[in-house]
Records
---
Amino acid sequence: MATPLSAETASTQPPRPRAGCLRTALSRLAIVGVGVMVSLCLVEIGVRLVAPQHLQYISAGLFEADPRRIYRLAADFSGTISTTEFTTEVQTDAQHLRESQDYGPKPEETYRILVLGDSFTFAAQVPADQAYPKLLQSQLNEADPDHRYEVINAGVGGYGPEQEEIYLETEGLQLEPDLVIVSFFTENDMTDHVDPNVYVEDGRLYTHSEDSLKTQVLRPIHEWLQGNSHAYVFLTNRLNTLLWRFGLRDYWFPPAFKREYDAAMQASWAFAQDQLARLIDTAHAANAQVVIVVIPTAYQADLNLWQQYLQIYAPAGGGG
């Protein structure tokens, strides 16, 4: 009959090797990791099949730094812009314009129109020949075949009157326009001025307010997921909507739509008007006429959309 080990004998038994415990822990961790990866892959496949998303991506190199305008379109760029609404191939010419050709001296018997504006004029949502400057060019030449019209698209996303005036003064007048069309978007062109917090990195635009250590670490991951994961885009869009609806994220209400302007908004609007006046004077000094085209938001033109906008985004008692 076996006798039980004494306490002294038991205490002398070799302990379980630590390497064995580590291997067990790593094996379990690997199993959990594989399970998580398989689950994420299944979710990604499911979203791609059931609710495919427009991935958000801008090819590196679209923008370059500019000493006065902060940024401008890079020359001879070719790449893709993709958002939750569209995917478009975009090219620029050697003159930093969204054009398929370079423009030299104005040919005789040609009426040349230069169009300034922001993303509405740049029109990344559509091919270049479907942007409204090119549609205008086609319509003018069809309506008046005895004359030749050129309409040049000088739109840049995010630009406002200040940057447009600088561009006209430094580069635009070299194109010898007979007419300058300025598109003015009511939602933000009253406040879109040169922002020193904006900078160019790898041909993309960023702001210094985003440069916390956390942002620097997470930004590359976020950008990669936006450009590659349908599930990530789907979930972040739904999460943002829920946060807005339940008041867990600050509402953004266009300051131009408020009944009364605070001092900052009054100053911003006065500055925008001053830049527009300078732009007009710059054009007139070069014997070019100016037309300002006011572009409303969709919810300014459609009462039903306006009511939906107020219901979703506007804080209680805000705007109207």
---
Amino acid sequence: MSNILYKKFLFLFIAVSFIIPQIIFADLTIINSSTVSISATVGAIAPPSPVPSGGGGGGGGTVSIPTAINFSGIAYTSAKVYILKDGSLVSTTVASSGGIFSATITGLDTYIYTFTVYAEDSTGRKSSVFSIPVSITPKANINIANILLSPTVDMDKVIVKKGDSLSIYGVSNPNSEVVITIKGTNEYTYKVSASSTGIYSYNLDTSILAFGSYDVKAKSILNGSMSLDTLPLIFKVGTENKLKGDSYCGFLRGDINCDMHVNIVDFSMMAYWYKKPNPPAKIDLNNDDVITLADFSILAYNWTG
């Protein structure tokens, strides 16, 4: 494959598999997400006319509105909230005890940016990302409010003996309802309430599950708004228990960096080895001793984002 063709493939793959699915357009109805409020002020504000005085007149003029974008919403108690502009971190803030966060980005040029917001709980688990493209015009002051970030989710086992319980837990928006979805051959939904600090947990009875692999996802509902789903975790129902360790890679083919997701990080690692000799076994997904489009196809099929 020529370098030009490869670069075109690389761009198309990233656009279709990573960028496009995560964009939530401001002028569309947002599905499975919070009811986001978007408003803008553009231009300049004229100040009140000065009170006439005996001596000469006062000057007029305007007060210029700085170009800025303001983000606000709900995460978790004391969560770290990160805001990225076109993939680069531009702001970090800490949510209040009630999970409320806000941040302002200034110094923006006229351009169409993609902003990404996500939260991290006290254990380092991350929410799914909220992304939105924003067109910036001169002297625009844009407010994006009511962002409801997804919960975090974790589990105590990656293999659970059929009939034993699987503990599913995480942190959500304080006092929210958490919807946990288990999906395999069939789909099961469970609802739990998060505490005033956002902690939630559910013990899943696996006796009703057939042997095999399952996805676990969670989302929160608060005051009629619904967050995005978390990225899925994977577990198996088998004949023994295996605890989830920090170094465990899970069962996702293409999860090269062992974070239980197949995403742009894994793609980048695979791209480095494209057509190079002796690629690592965990990157050579079809075991033919070379990284080709076949490996990228397998990666795309297992993509989680």
